[in-house]
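Long-time lurker, finally posting.

We've been working with Alpha-xylosidase (Lactobacillus pasteurii DSM 23907 = CRBIP 24.76) and I want a structural starting point before designing mutants. I don't trust myself to interpret raw outputs, so I'm hoping someone here can both generate the structure tokens and explain anything notable. Sequence follows.
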Amino acid sequence: MEQKIVDGGHRFTVITESLIRIEEDQTGNFENRATTAVLSREFAKPDFQLIENHNGHQLEIITKTIHLYYDGGDFSSESLYADILLQGSSQVSRWYFGQKNDARANLKGTARTLDEADGEIPLGEGIMSRNGFYYLDDSKSFIYDDETDEFSPRPNSVVDGYLFAYGQNYQSQLTDFYQLTGKTPLIPRFALGNWWSRYHAYSAQEYQDLMTKFEAEQIPINVSVIDMDWHRVEDVPVKYGSAWTGFSWNRSLFSDPEAFIAWLHVHGKKVSLNLHPADGIRAYEDQYQDVAKTMGLDTSSEEPANFDLENSKFRQAYFKDVLHPMEKEGVDFWWLDWQQGTAKNDQHLDPLWLLNHYQYQDSQKRHSGQALILSRYGGIGSHRYPIGFSGDTIISWKSLAFQPYFTITAANVGYTWWSHDIGGHMLGSFDGELATRWLQFGVFSPINRLHSSNNMFSGKEPWNYRLDYEKSQKSFLRLRTKLVPYLDSSNYLTHEKGIPLVKPLYYQYPDKEEAYQFKNEYFFGKEMLVSPITRPHDETTQMAYSETWLPEGEWVDYFTHLVYPGNTVIKTYRSVDQMPVFVRKGSVILTNPNYLESLDHLPAKLQAEIFAGADGKYQLFEHENDHLAQTTFTWDETEQDFTYKINDPDQILPKSRKIELIKQASSLQDVFAEMKKRLQMAKIDFELKQKLYQSFVSADYKYGAYINLLNTLDNLDLRDSLSEVAYIRTAYEG
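Top reply, 14 upvotes:
Generated this for you. Predicted structure of Alpha-xylosidase:
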């Protein structure tokens, strides 16, 4: 049966059993080209039933999940509606054309920017909803002509929308969303390491000295982002206006830019420069004469090349005459810091969208397999242009507390590669604990880009903080690059299977209420469950906590290797050198122990961390350009046997690769050690400490009696922290 059903000025396309396109165009000229949001509507043909002129309905379309009714005439809530059967439930929900999506049920998407945010901001809609359906309105999207590489507004007012009805099959919905709107590209492996970024007028020597110190401290920095002071600022004549936009090197700071970038490359760093391109190319720029020639500008009057990516001549000059020569000097990619608002009217496309599209497309053409930009979110479809720059946040605990949730919900519009200003950008005050907890979240977020303002006291160098914070930050920065094999495997799964690196709990546990309640908790890749700490420590325990839901099963703390029985909600207290990260028994985590080596090449050595206690299996995906290798690791708990099988048809893996097995386990003695550590840190009476410890390690210990003892304590944090350890002990008994 034909998937497209046309009735006069109305067309319905059954894309999948859970996705129907709905169009109304009185001219009858229905749109088959791509839009800014939608690239392809070609799916495998679904099963459905079409009924015409029955029981007063002009058309009925019936699939396993949707029963759509059309009663003729212009679309309205009376003429077009659908019953949605939620999978696994007898419940039927009704959708009416024109009704607003249910804001209470919607699981939210993301926002254009966190600029100047101090905590929570409103989020746009996501395509996931607890009521099982969502209507995506594409009516105002611009049309994309891939032959001319141009965007144009629709010639007349139309209805063009997509009714998603996937129930709680959120991952399936996201996978089909990607097929509809385009895959998320693979991001370069180097982007998964640590980024250093700061709004500060570095000189070449000052920057090299800083990177040399990072190396001496054995802290890997893989991406160097040079903020706007790389270009002329202070010496730009007033007549040209704001110096925020610039394309000419500041030679007083960088006398030999090519040598500076070459030095960074030799030291294993990719290089990005910040651009605020809104003021175009003016007569003082080094490239002005070439730009003027390309565009036919009047140089005698110093006619500027106004920033206009709708103008093909400007696009040609912008890339050919301005950016490409700088890329030949070594610039690897660009940070596009667009802050100038949206389109001037509905006949023009948002400049941010155009900037992201053309800039990423140019990067793809020139840097095959290494394409990248850093830019703000421009709306549905922006996932095709990674990576997202979330903006200039305020340094505060409120900002940190919002960022995990903000990152998680972005998956609901397919936007999986957010890069935050880790540590916050501006205002705030000096707080080593906040900086450390923020960095820990950064290590377990899509991109770990440290950033700060041009205040001389706000730099994020670990040695700016007291020793315990410094040690923790260094350890986590090293961990980030150790985890790159694991992260890059998730990168591949995002690209190929549509599975986000940072995945909401409800994707995996849609029937569990806790999966919706614990908004800052998420899966990080296939194996890890992360519950970041976003509050300061309390004075009694000297620890901070997050509230964590552990689903059914047995979970192991990634750092301490202590076991937690699942199917519980618990406060997880951690000292500043740790954070709550859990894996299941049987998990296999692949890391690179040589964390200082370049990320340009696949590692010659891997460590396979086995969290014993159950059988386990993990597939590691590695890639070089278009070539893929897959290694399947298997742990047999009964036989205590670790095996792996390599599938490397194009021989991209190092021939000398070594894989070291590290078996992680713990015992009751480790639980005792954890209790002793917490009591040692606690600011309470020595006699009380000893009583609590001796009762815990006593041969007569009973869980219930010990909890009763803890309930006599006045301090809630102390009770909860020690109760957590008592709960851990239950996993080692019986």
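Before you design anything, note these points.
The mean pLDDT is 95.
DSSP finds 16 helices and 35 strands in the chain.
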